[in-house]
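Entry 14. Structure prediction run on the chain below.
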Amino acid sequence: MPRHQRVTPVGSVQHVISRFVNRGYLLDCPGARRQYTTRLRRALEHTDWVLLAYALMSSHIHLVMVAGRRPLESLTKRVHVGFAGWLNRKVGRLGPVFASRPRSITVHGDGAATLIAYVHNNPVRAGTASEAAQSTWTSHRAYLGAAPSGDWLDVCAGLRMSCFSCDASGRLAFDTFVRERAGEPRNGLLCGDGDARARRTVRAAVAAPVELSTPFVGWSGEPEVQRLVIAAPNTPIHIPCSPEPMDLLRTVSRVTGVPLEELSSRSRRRPVSDARRIALFAWNRHFGKPAIEIARSLGISPSSASELLATATQGVARRAAAVVQAHLR
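Output returned:
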């Protein structure tokens, strides 16, 4: 099936990774990092995305951003097409510069601080600096006030989202936070590793050429990753198992955060009603089971179950797909 559209919640924190062809050290070309940041600054003037942090490594680029309503590609294409042309002219080369479209990972919860620290420690892991503050390849020195940030890099927003203040004491505390994590190894969860393997596994499980969304990384006790299953209209999907109603409701509770006992209560709170819709949609549309079976476990009448299903939105359908995927893992 054609490449899927990114599922990018507006206002979410995104880890955007771009790699060069053949893992080439193309940013080591004299002036390349300055050229890239200049083009990035100009491109940010034409988008509603916000840059929180960056690391310009020799063979790849990390950006930490707050997602806007415009597509990510409207930003990255504006930067990468021009930069690729500049680099090819500079070194006398031909052909693509970037390996593929950028990879993006959605980071939820209190993961902003962990992500920015991880990005700022990239030169430390690469052995080009003994601590983040020594490197000019990242935005860490701007966070410390040791380098200018300009309007294109929102340091204060990055500090606030990481639960640090924007004053001198907050910046110093942030530097300590980053240095304490300097010895951490590469984090495949934050880099979206395993996409191809996950795609093969899900396709084999549902016996259909489905796609997976970009990963959602969350922190609820332990880091965990979720991906939505995306299928073309009328795709026949085989679900390899039929869950028990309460087993599915436990998964719905875990994914939505609505307590299991509240799902089957008389509560009419919006989050509870939405969670019931998700459960009904997953049970009826994905597993092909009669809604009346899970309606009993939800403590609602068949007519109420039908009404909830009839008012399910596209957002409910996406979250139901996430529930099914989480249940099948």
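The radius of gyration is 23 Å.
Filed with the rest of this week's runs.
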